[in-house]
Each structure stands twice: as structure tokens, then as C-alpha cells.
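Minutes, project check-in
Item: structure for the 506-residue chain
Input as provided by the requester:
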Amino acid sequence: MSRTEMPKTRAEWQQRAADLTLEKGLETRAFINDVFVAAASGETFETRNPATGEVLAEVASCDAADADVAVSHARAAFDGGAWSRLAPGKRKKALLRLADLMEADKAELALLDTLDMGKPISSSLGDISGAIACFRYQAECIDKLYGEVAPTGDEALALVLREPLGVVASIVPWNFPLMMTAWKVAPALAAGNSVILKPSEKSPLSALRLAQLAHEAGLPRGVFQVLPGFGHTVGRALALSMEVDCLAFTGSTATGKQLMQYAGESNLKRLYLECGGKSPNLVFADCKDLDRVAKHAAAAIFHNQGEVCIAGSRLLVENSIREAFVDKVVAAAERMQPGDPLDPDSFMGAMVDETQYQRVLGFIRQGQEEGARLRAGGEATAVDGKGFFIPPTVFDGVTPEMAIGREEIFGPVLSVFGFDSEEEAVRLANDSVYGLAAGLWSQDIDRIMRVTRRLQSGQVFVNNWAGGDQTMPFGGVKQSGNGRDKSHHSLEEYSDLKSVWMSLAT
């Protein structure tokens, strides 16, 4: 099977995984100034397959020294203008070429994400499609965003220009490795910036493969670099750098707060954060087809093993239908059991590593101790006797004081609350430090409009969960962050406005 052919069965995916070797192009070194190099220290770290526990590769572990070198090259590339001052149409052409290369390499990119973080291959393929769509969308936006001419008298001409920021550092998470990378990197590159990517140490392989494709697509030297490593070393160095103009981050709220401090301690760099979530999913009794709604409610939390920032982890159900509805959710969850991530029929895969696996199990134990009613799951499992797998877990009778109803678990654990009125539902939904996403299921258009406006959330899904495409901005409010990914709004975030006032002779 050639590299561009798409495997179709579990056996074919397993064979493709077995063929991944350094000799066949698996890159594990840092990508600095258009060259793959070892970390300056020579240090490496292991990346493991969480479905089997096997070591996939030893990856370069970058630190402050590597960050300094990469930043200097990024600055030189930006100041040199080979990309930053390149005609928008030519930047567009290069990014579309990169998207085409990603399309041709889709199977390999998906496989790398599945092996690195344990998600099902079918989900990874969807993620790569999303990443490709993001690059194409942002590329097409480049030559369609206009500046402005301000209204003046005859004595002046006033222009509002849009210019790239400079050097952008992107720190991305492990749960959607390449898709989150695209959401940060594509608009930053499209705007004309030089970009340094710090992938998660738990899922660095697809980012390094993207660097190979970017080189092949012809991006100029120093414009796109990849520094694998840890947050407390290379991530911290990028955040504190006086030469990084913007930092874009997706990850935990705690880390986001630390990065805000680093931005203030250094050069007041622009900072865009997409942080944690504990998203409410409101189901009113007037819904029709409760079986369909229950399937969506289950998928909202169990997709990607619950390792999703917008996971619908708080299910708020009107009490008049709650018992029957939870039965339907439990039935739907039973059909979403974890399996081999390389099996295209698996809905769930493995938790990303043992640390996250033990963390989720700890929350499950705490939920039982605090008196929530366990309706499904609750025990660890294995696939072929290996791996960090946790089945769909459902708790009913949850209250806001319980840890499972308040804290972001980032695993397949659903907390069900009951409510008796619209007012109570809104109060429960907003009773959180987070505000990333919310869902609302109802047939009453007046209620939909009232509740949608009152939900404290960056995005609201009405009679669906996680709907949207590249045209819609993605981000949160409160402690879920302040940035927006996707849409032309993200392109605007990676550029700055310059006002030019020209006096005219009269």
C-alpha cells in the first residue's frame, strides 16, 4: 500500500502503523530555520502509544536555548520580508499548496495523531479534514480583507491599514493535535507572520510531519518552525521572550493564567487564550424525538474520550422527563464503548496517558463518595489486555457543590442535573467559572431566543452539539479565555491596525 492510499480496515491501519519508522521518514527532531536538528542539549523524551503502552519514538526535547535560536530566525525572516511583505495572492498560493500536500498525506497525519494520543482513527481522519479546511479557508481570506478609508474633508486622506504582528508563538494541546495546530498556525501565517509552533509533548509527531510538508510547499526559511518539548522549558521561554509579539494558546485555564503573567513580565505581548470548559447542555421537556437528543447528548461528552474542551459534560434535564431521558442516554452510551483506536468502527479510544487515566478515575471515585448516583461505567477497562481505557460513565443526581459537577475532568464522565423551570436551568448553566460552549434543546422558539441570550458562553448550539464550520469563530468567555479561532476574525487577531493621516495640499 502506497503512502497516499487510505487504509480501510483495522488490519490495514495496523500494518501502516507497523511501517512507521525513522528510515521511512518519521521525523522526531526540531524544525528550526528550515532544517531538522537535534535539541541543543541533545535531550529527548519518549512519546508512547496510550492504547498499548509502547514507545513510539524519542523526540527532541527543546528548551530555552532552542527557543532563542528559533525566535532569532523568525525575527530575521519577518524583517527580511520574504513572507511578511509577500503579495497576498502569493501567500495564498503557498498555503493552498500546503493544504493540498496535507490532503495527499491525510492517512499518515491521521495515523500519527491516533498513535500519539489514542483517539480513534475515524476521529483523527475527521480532524485532519478540519485542519485542511482551515488552511484553505484562511488562505482564501488573505486577499479578501480590505483596509479602510476614513471619512475626511478635502484637506486629508485617512487610511486604516492592516499589518502582520511579527513573531507568533503557538502552544497547542494534545487532544486535537493537528486540528488545533491549524486553527492557530493557518491564520497567523496567512496574515504574514513568522510562526513558532510548540506542540504538546504528548502528541508532537503530526506537527513535525507538518513541518516537512511546509518545507515541501515552499514556505520561506524561518517562517514556520516547530519546537517539541515541555511547557515549563521551551513553552516558558517562548512566553517570556522579548522578541515574540503574540502568543496563542489552547490548554488548561491554570496554564493560561501563568502565560498571562509571563506576557506581563516580558514585553506585554498579545495573548490569545482558549482554555478550559465545563459546558452545560440544556434539555427541555418540549423536545421532540428524545431518542435522537439522547444520542447527541451522549456523543457530546463521549466523543474523543471526553478529552474535549467543549465537551457537554454537564447535562441539565427538565425533571419531568429526566429519569426516562437519562435511561436513553445510558442506552446510547452502551453503544459507545472504547475499542482499538486503529479500528475504524471504534467510537472511543484510550486516554492520552496514565496520568490523565488516573486523574479521571480519581474523579469517578470522588463522584461516588460525594453521593452522586452512578448510572453507567465507572470502572477502568482494557483492549486486548492493554492500554488506558475508561468506558462512558454517567452520574445522575449531581449538584453544583460536587467536584464532578464543577471541575473540568477531561474524560468520559457525564454529570446530570435536574431543573424545574427555565430560570433554574439558566442559573445552573451559568453557575461555572467557565464559559466556552453551551447547548440548548427545545422546540419553543421564544424560549430558544430568551435562553440563548442569557447563557454566558462564547458559543451556543441550538438543537445540535458542536455544530459549525470554518466561517464561525470559536472561543469562550470568563475563565475559558479570550481568543477566537476560525473564521476571518482569527485572521484579524494576528494582524494589527495602522492609522495613516495624510495632509493634502489645497
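Outcome recorded: Residues 121-141 form the longest helix (21 residues).
No further action items on this chain.
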